[in-house]
Amino acid sequence: MGLDWSHRFCSQATFVLKQDDDIFVDLYGLLHHLKTTSFGSRLQSTNSIFGKLLSNKTVLRDPTSKWYVTQKDYPGSTYHDFVSGWAYVTTPKVIEALLDAGQKTAYFWIDDVHVTGTLR
Predict the structure, then answer these.
(1) CB count, 10 Å around CB of 100?
(2) What is the pLDDT of residue 3?
């Protein structure tokens, strides 16, 4: 929903920061980094998502776990690489592509895995 909102109302933005409500981001420091290093231009030219990459994360099959996932919901034993939803930076162009992919892809309830893994 947040990505859709940013797509509708902030399509002119250069960058979009998605963060959880319990995460602190030094916005001035982030903006300074994006504007004064090659990182900002690389982010735009490569259509990337910048954040904490999580690789080879095992799908939890323990029914007592908060993160329990059935074989039917996610057939693999490990998730596709995905970016943690704590906080990540991307561009409106990437958000548009993620939203388009979301219209054609079955929903998966672990949003970090779904959005920055499966849809990406």
Answers:
(1) 11
(2) 93
Distance CA(11)–CA(92), nearest Å, equals: 6
12-27 residue pLDDT tens: 999 999 999 999 999 9
β-partners of residue 89 are 17, 50
Angle at 89 between CA 86 and CA 95, to 5 degrees: 105
Tokens 């319990």 belong to residue: 22
Q: Please, what is the angle between helix 38-45 and helix 27-36, to 10°?
A: 80
Task: State which residues of the chain have pLDDT below 50.
Answer: none
Q: Where are the alpha helices (DSSP H) in the chain?
A: 2-9, 27-36, 38-45, 92-104, 111-113
Q: What is the pTM of this model?
A: 0.88
Q: Are 47 and 94 in contact (CB under 8 A)?
A: yes
Contact between 117 and 80 under an 8 Å Cβ cutoff? The reply is: yes
Three-state DSSP class for 70?
Answer: coil
So where are the chain's domains?
2-50+84-119
Query: Is residue 88 within 8 Å of residue 18, measured between CB atoms?
Result: yes
